[in-house]
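It would be a great kindness if you could assist me with a short task in structural biology. The full record is reproduced below for your convenience:
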Amino acid sequence: MKHRFSLPVALGLLSAILLVPGNCQEIAEKPPQQPIRAKPGPVRVNGFAAKVNGDVITLNELMIKVAPLQSLLMARFPRRGPVYENQLRELKAQILDDLIDRTIIHTEFKDRVRAFPDQEIEAEVKRIVQNVYNGDEGLFRKYLQATSLTRNQFKEQQRKELLVQIVRAQHFGDVPPPKEHELSEEYKKWAVANRDRTKDVGTYKRIYLRKDMGDSPEDQLKLAEDLYQKLKAGADFATLAKAHSNDSKAEIGGLWKDIPRTDLNHDFGSFLFETQGNEIMGPIEDNFGFNIIQVITRKFGPAKSLASVRDQMKSRVASEKKKENFEKWMKKMRARADIQKML
């Protein structure tokens, strides 16, 4: 099973995290809750993940950023196993390296952090609430509570994130002015990542096997795996949905048409809207059962116009052109830094 998440989406998930357990349950029906495998949450520990020039990166900082993507991994691999463990290790290592680089940059340019006006930081927080939490302030407050962060502490994190973006865009040599086609291409990527996700609408096919149906949750998982293999081999989705699915759309072949993202669980919405292509995905576990899905169409919500973000696109194109020089600089900075990894 392949799920391809775009880089902007992955980074967005890393910067603002959903820690509310998902149920991916259909819109109208809610069966009795069944015992489920534990979902990842923030790990409240006092240990260190790394030290960078004396600055500490705690295990809790690392796991807060790992949690949302680990949740998706757990849904993708209901049986866990070596592939899951390897991907989780790689995920932790990549995120830790990213945290180390950001700490190095912050140390070098920290005198500029306070230069950002509060309204700019507040606007960034509102953007995250809109893009990651579908504009739901209550859900965002649950995240802050779960991670023991105040809103001001979260804003300070965003100051550092913004510093990294500014440093990458403004330093490391002059580059030619961006051409119109470069701005257009950069805007297309930006618009997908910064759209109004509350306006996303999708059509998809789904087979849903409830854990409280059949002989046991294990039997339902085995059936889901068998159905997935049959579908990959060319079996008709509608026929299998009518025969096996436990949701209200089974009789029409499992077709869910024009479903607003706001009607979906967060994780389920990520599988539908933050993947590419129309391949069959599954079995994907939620609190109550196992999903096999195939996206038919994705209608993305709107984003700001190119004209309104033109200067931002110029900076992004310039940053991309400076990437090689930035990486050379980071290599030197890493070599000079006192980095100790504790994982």
User: Anything to note?
Assistant: The chain has two domains: 7-196+305-341, 197-299. The two ends are 29 Å apart (CA to CA).
